[in-house]
Structure formats: C-alpha cells, structure tokens
Amino acid sequence: MSGLTINLPAQNAGGFATHPGLRRWRAARAKVLFGSADAQIACVGDSETMGTGGSGTAYVNGAVYAYPRRLASALTSAGLPAAETSCFGDHRIGFTSFLTYDTRVLAPSAWVEFMADGPGGYYFFNNTDANALSFAPVPAFDNMILWDTTNSAYCAWGMNVDGGATIATLTPTGSTRLRRTVETCALATHTINIIKSGTLNLNLVFNGWDTFDSTTHRVRVHSLSGSGWQASQVVGAAGVSAPLPFYTSIAPDLFLIYLGTNEYVNNITPAAFTAAMQTLISACLVIGDVVLIAPAFASTAYPQVTQQAIINCCYALATQYSLPLLDLSKRFGLWVDGNASGMYYDVDHMSGAGYLDIAASISNILMQ
C-alpha cells in the first residue's frame, strides 16, 4: 500500500516528496531541530482522527492508538522530538466514555460535558462542587497553558500541581470571552488540578490544557477532533470558544485536515462539503500550513459513488489551494480489501494497525 499524494513534485516510489508550499511547517521543524522553539501540529478531524476502534474497542484507551499520538511517536523515531501534550475536550463521545478513552484526564461526577463544540469536542463543565478536574500529561513540563470561557457571572477557579499550593486563582470578569492563561511550575511530570473557588453553584467552563518544557524543544501534537463531525459542524459552531476562533489562540504551524467520512454516512452533497471545507481551509491557512487527507473508503453500507464524490472533492480542494494531499482511499483500497488486511475496525473506522499506518504516511511527508 504505497499511498498516493498530489501536489508533491518529483515523488519517489513511495509517493512522497518535498512540497514547496509547506514553508511555515519546514521553518517550525527547523527551529525544533536547532533547539530554539517548539512547533505545533493540529490534527483536525472526526472519529477517524480521535482513533475510534484503535484499541479493538470503540473508545477504551483510544487516545493511545489514535493517529495523533502515533504521529508524535513516528516523528520522534524519525529524529524530530514530538509528543501529544494537550487535551481540548471530550471529543463528543460522552464524559463517561471519554474518561476511559484518555486516561490522562481524571474527573469526579460533578464534572460533565458542556454541550458546545470547541476544537476538541465538548468542553468540561462544573456548577456543583470544588472537586478537581485533573490532567496528567507526559513528558515532563514546566509551563502550562490553560483555557477557559469566562464572564463576570461565572465562577472563579484555582489551579495547582500534584495537590500542592495554589499556583494561580482566576477570577471571572467582563463579557463572555475565551481566556488563555500561562503558568509555570518545576520541571517534572505533574498532575494539573483545576478547582472551583468562591460560589460553587456558579458555572465553570474549562476548555483545555497544553503543556511544554521550556528547556527542551519538540513538536506539540494536538488532537482537535470530534466524533461524528462533518466539516459544516466544525465551521458552523458558534461562540467565542468555537473551533475557528480557538485555532487562532492555539496558533499551530501546521494543520492536518482529515474529514469526509461522516459526509459519506450522512449522504452530504459534494457542494455542501466543498463549501464547508473552503471555509475551514481558508481559516487555517491564515494561521499555518495545511495538509489535506482524503478519507479511506467505508464499506458498501454507504454508496461507493457517494464516497468517491467526497474523495474527488478533496482533490479539487487540494488543487484549488495548492495543498499536499494524502489519499487514504488509494492507500488502503476498497473497504473489502483493507478489511481483509486488518486495516479496519468496523464499516467506517480504521483498526489500530490502520491508524499506525496513517501516522507513518504523514510522518513521511512531514520529514521530507
């Protein structure tokens, strides 16, 4: 399965070559290798990006097998240090399932999902008590970036690491807005705790964490994915913490956009898919470079003509914006063949082996 890319001149036998348009990504990569700055990759997508089925079950430990985590490992193996350092929501799978999906996050029952789309699905919400929402990422870090949605009617909150002294207390002010806060701690692996303070029955909407080590630079990989997402839902979400405005706050150097499977499932027209993707790609290109990923085929439970039409749209979009495109339908072939090879978990999700193969394919492109 060699895979097919377009807009990559002088392709080698594996279908990969340098793309002259990825200048921002290449500059960011060079700074990591030189040891002067971090780089960031945003993996934008649906349940194929969040890794549904990768562990052999729908969600349990799915973050470990999803392609963003595997991409970080592949880049590291190729000589470019990388890690998945962040969490931006529950990926729209329900809070109970999410806590088995990403075991870096711990939360008591008072924490639930806030039903509004952000870059990583639904947010974390508490209007009950002061029990901690916790995040324990690896590798070691000495800086924490924290996002919340705040206004003057919301609850204050504090944060600590490992249950120690409060590092900062954030008070609600002003009109509704997305707030980005950076705090520091001793360099080590830690558990970050978010704890309400003040009037506990007021709302706290917590949007996510990122972490980094100021002494050792790497690529920080973010899974910005939501189960069931169509492109129109990503760009159509409203509010100060919706995906598009949030991307600006994260400021990735590179976006990997992998959408289209739910357009198969819901029989979305090519015109509607194209229009939503144009909005998404245009917004992302203001911030960083873009690699487009055409989805793999699903089973014949969905008309193949519908699937091929969405894939054809990806080619047209790649041509319109001069983007490198990785075509997973060419890489894995028809569903019946890819499934026989062990690349699929079910009728429209990859297996752990499939996600690993996607990560390797992307790493090959990004290391050229």
Protein architecture, described:
This protein has 368 residues and is of the alpha/beta class. Helices cover 32% and strands 27% of the residues. The protein contains 13 helices and 18 strands. Helix 4 (67-77) packs across helix 13 and helix 9 runs parallel beside helix 10 (304-321). The radius of gyration is 20 Å and the shape is globular. Residues 9-18 have low confidence and may be disordered.
In one word, what is the shape? Answer: globular
Number of strands: 18
Radius of gyration: 20 Å
Biggest beta-sheet profile: 7 strands, mixed
Strand order within the widest sheet?
1-18-17-16-2-15-3
- SS field, number of helical segments: 13
Distance between the ends:
19 Å
Alpha-beta content class: alpha/beta
Strand content: 25-35%
Estimate the helix proportion, in percent: 25-40%
| Mean of all residue-level pLDDT scores | 94
Low-confidence sequence ranges:
9-18
Could you outline the blueprint of secondary structure elements for this entry?
Elements lengths: L3 E3 L16 H12 L4 E7 L1 H4 L11 H4 L1 H11 L4 E3 L1 E2 L7 H7 L3 E2 L5 E7 L2 E6 L6 E3 L5 E10 L5 E6 L6 E3 L6 E12 L3 E6 L6 E9 L6 E7 L5 H6 L6 H8 L3 E5 L2 H5 L4 H18 L1 E6 L9 H18 L3 E3 H5 L2 H6 L11 H15 L2
Parallel strand pairs: 2-15, 2-16, 3-15, 16-17, 17-18
Antiparallel strand pairs: 1-18, 4-14, 5-8, 6-7, 7-14, 8-13, 9-12, 9-14, 10-11, 10-13
Helix pairs in contact: 4-13, 9-10
